[in-house]
Amino acid sequence: MALLKWSAVVVGMGLINAPGAMAAAFVSGQADAKGFVEDASLNLLLRNYYWNRDNQNGAPDARDWTQGIQGVFTSGFTQGTVGVGVDAFGYLGLKLWAPERYSVPGYVSGNLTEGADGHPDDSYGKAGAALKVRVSHTLLKAGDMQPSTSPVFAVGGSRLTPVTVSGLQLMSSEVTHLDLEAGHFYSGTSQDQTNRNGSLWAAYANRPSSAMDYAGGRYALGDTPWSLGVYGGRLEDIWNQYYANLNYTRALSDSQSLAVDFNYYRTTDQGAARAGTIDNNTFSLQAGYTFAAAHTLTLGFQKINGDTPFDYVGTGDNNRPGDSCFIANSVQYSDFNGPGEKSWKLQYDLNMAAYGVPGLTLMTRYVYGYDIDGTHLSPSSAYYGMYGADERHHETNVEAKYVIQSGPARDLSIRVRQAWHSATAGDPDGDANEFRLIVDYPIAIF
Q1: In sequence order, what are the beta bridge partners of 243?
Q2: Which of 15, 92, 253, 376 is the most exposed place for a label (fewest CB within 10 A)?
Q3: Longest C-alpha distance within the chain, in Å?
Q4: 139-146 — which CB contacts under 8 Å span 24+ positions?
Q5: Contact 376, 389 (CB under 8 A)
Q6: Is the pLDDT of residue 9 over 70?
Q7: How big is the CA angle at 411 (ends 406 and 416), to the nearest 5 degrees?
Q8: Does the annotation count 324 as an active-site position?
Q9: CB-based burial of residue 355 (10 Å sphere; 0-12 exposed, 13-18 middle, 19+ buried)?
Q10: Strands 212-220 vs 226-235: parallel, antiparallel or unpaired
Q11: Residue 67, CB half-sphere, CA atoms under 13 Å: how many?
Q12: pLDDT in tens, 346-391
């Protein structure tokens, strides 16, 4: 269905934001600690956001224009064997334009909180903090945070202000090339709510859970182009979910490279099974080829095996889906995750730096999904009635982003996103056209 979701897919060079795509180690060394104040930072992000979703077939449209201010304070660690620090945030959202006729409850952008009448508030704010303790290359955090590295539990920030969750997170990078993590989270605050005690959810099933636990990690196979990620998670009384990722990234020459990414999820019902019986296997495989240092072509295939859709965790009392959907064909509007669904993606990225315009990137992609069949679901399933038989849909995305390279507005980015989605009558995603204009201006205070 057309949830207020965002995708884990990263635009640019056709790569997936998955554990296999190796980045910096999770945890730096305590031996390098400079002090609580000496290594502290305070950063602001000014985000101006225009949203326009044109829902077809008589459904209400959603439009608004908003301004957000995101402030993030990150302390350093005290020196010594055990380092202590604090991470804190404060977010403010302002309504610039949001007519009631374009803010019908159930058809909103997710960029503004709603009042008692279901219409957008003029403003909202939220804040939180987490205590952090580091020993060697191992870090424990407790409080409010934004976990983003786990493919079975990650929250995102593609709306006006980010999602946050409350709980414990342990991360360790004691072994070279090996990053491990585990977490226990018990509440969430969605992007358009401010209360800190919101529920966690099975997003598509719309069933609440009292806790999410997960563990896993990623490993780069020495100096080879291969890396591996393995995770497991439990959404209490709803599901157990297991994940594996295999990633291959290799430079073929100074101007050519190849990236291959495989993702697999196994989901089964757990405990009280509040969403009903779940027995789902989901996988995606995609390959991206970069040539002439500017062009990337990516081909992806995705398959949902089972009578239920591939589902992932939502947050807040209004159940806004998070980011734990590390599959290739989860794009701007749809996840292409219906029961039995097969989907193909063709994507083209262009980096204009090679043509004398550094900071400008362009992307277009097309995804086609078919063979969706929801007719085998039991009436006791939370997914019952969502999907018909032999449903199909397709989506086209076009995107342009420019980042200013120098001067007073350095790092200010302007991002334009357009999606066209069309489906057969029984597909819950429906028909919609969606346009987003996002202007981000990051400011380092200190």
Answers
A1: 231, 265
A2: 253
A3: 63
A4: 139/26, 139/27, 139/170, 139/171, 139/172, 140/168, 140/169, 140/170, 141/87, 141/168, 141/169, 141/170, 141/171, 142/167, 142/168, 142/169, 143/87, 144/89, 144/189, 144/196, 145/87, 145/169
A5: no
A6: no
A7: 120
A8: yes
A9: exposed
A10: antiparallel
A11: 6
A12: 999 999 999 999 999 999 999 999 999 999 999 999 999 999 999 9
Residue 192, both tokens: 């358009």
Domain 30-444 CATH class label? mainly beta
E strand residue ranges, 75-136: 82-97, 123-135
Residue with tokens 């969430």: 188
Determine the Cα angle at 402 with ends 294 and 324, to 5°: 85
Return the structure tokens found at 384.
């019952």
The answer to whether residue 334 is catalytic is no
Catalytic residue, from 172, 190, 324, 334: name it: 324
Q: How many CB atoms lie within 10 A of CB 197?
A: 11
Rounded CA separation 168/147 (Å): 10
Does the annotation count 190 as an active-site position? no
> Pick the catalytic residue: 119, 177, 184, 394?
184
Q: How many CB atoms lie within 10 A of CB 446?
A: 8
- Between residues 16 and 307, which one has the greater pLDDT? 307
pLDDT (tens digit per residue) in 253-311: 999 999 999 999 999 999 999 999 999 999 999 999 999 999 999 999 999 999 999 99
Catalytic residue, from 144, 213, 237, 307: name it: 237
Measured between alpha carbons, how far is 134 from 171 in angstroms, rounded to an integer? 10
The confidence score (pLDDT) of residue 7 equals 41
